[in-house]
TrEMBL record:
Protein name according to UniProt: Pyrroline-5-carboxylate reductase
Enzyme Commission no: 1.5.1.2
Gene Ontology MF term list: pyrroline-5-carboxylate reductase activity
Subcellular location: Cytoplasm
HAMAP family recorded: P5C_reductase (MF_01925)
Binding-site residues for NADP(+), renumbered to this chain: A53, V54, K55, P56
Pfam family, one: P5CR_dimer
Domain of life: Bacteria
Originating species: Gluconobacter roseus NBRC 3990
Cellular component aspect of the GO annotation: cytoplasm
Protein's GO biological process: L-proline biosynthetic process
């Protein structure tokens, strides 16, 4: 996810000055220094925002390394975490172990951020200043839309819908491609049809004021082909049951990761 944000920021009209700490990534750009250990962070670099985009389980290790490298500079920064689950309190506590009193904001972006088409939920704890909230909003807005949430707990369902959501759409693309091939289309044709359809439908949802339900009904001729397919997908034990169940499972998992 950090790579998706990075790509989006570099492609934005006014890229921020970035220092990227990543054990593996090779990346470059005028506004970027890349370091593989926290000790290599340039001594004159005062971050406004420390974006944490590692797996939730290694947050403490990374905060500890950055805290030791930045020393007093850590106190002038805020943490923006994009990690699923990890609470503002747990991250502030981790920073405090290094003697730093750091405001924490949490965002849940998604991978379309890499092409400027992301959407992020953003929560700011009370300790964040107005300026820090604005910087974090602008960072995320540079790679897509931003939806502020009032309660930190809401980020779990945001994660389930828009954080994980691209994967559901990609799964639909896979299944449409496979079904097309099973009916005799070449892989190339099946792929073009599946992707082009999802792209076009996504653009209609974005561009047009109509509800998703009205757009669906406009495709559905009485007793036609769409009605035949929707009779399968909309059976009570099909999508109307499985989609909410999937969102429940992802939300529950985000809650479990909290701490
Ligand atoms: N993948 C997604 O679509 C989304 C992921 N997230 C969150 O983003 C976080 C990262 O997830 P992914 O990007 O999928 O994982 P990933 O494994 O692709 O990326 C993690 C990166 O952290 C680096 N890293 C790990 N330990 C390090 C250390 N000690 N020092 C320096 N760099 C270190 C790795 O080299 C890697 O580049 C997770 O917390 C996840 O919840 C949030 C929104 C969407
Ligand atoms: O699967 C995950 O845990 C992360 C959070 C949202 C998308 N990927």
């Amino acid at each position: 996810m950090g790579g998706a944000l990075f790509d989006g920021w570099l492609a934005s009209p006014t890229p921020p000055r970035l220092v990227v700490l990543d054990r593996h990534r090779t990346c470059s750009g005028d506004a970027v220094s890349v370091v593989r250990t926290a000790a290599e962070i340039p001594a004159d670099f005062q971050p406004d925002i420390i974006v944490l985009a590692v797996k939730p389980a290694v947050a403490e290790i990374v905060i500890d390394a950055i805290g030791k490298a930045l020393g007093a500079r850590m106190n002038n920064a805020a943490i923006l975490s994009v990690m699923a689950g990890r609470t503002c309190k747990s991250l502030a506590d981790a920073a405090r172990l290094n003697g730093a009193d750091v405001p924490v904001l949490r965002a849940m972006p998604n991978t379309p951020s890499a092409i400027g088409a992301g959407i992020s939920g953003l929560y700011a704890s009370d300790t964040a200043t107005a300026e820090q909230k604005t910087i974090c909003h602008d960072l995320l807005f540079a790679v897509g839309d931003v939806v502020p949430v009032e309660k930190e707990a809401d980020l779990s369902v945001v994660t389930a819908i828009s954080g994980s959501g691209p994967a559901y759409v990609f799964l639909l693309a896979e299944l449409l491609e496979e079904a097309g091939q099973q009916h005799g289309l070449s892989p190339t044709v099946a792929r073009r049809l599946a992707r082009g359809t999802i792209y076009g439908a996504g653009r209609m949802l974005d561009d047009m004021p109509d509800s998703a339900e009205d757009l669906r009904k406009a495709v559905t001729s009485p007793n036609g082909t769409t009605a035949a397919a929707l009779a399968v997908l909309m059976k009570s034990d099909a999508w109307p049951e499985t989609v909410p169940k999937a969102i429940d499972a992802a939300t529950k998992r985000a809650d479990e990761l909290a701490g």
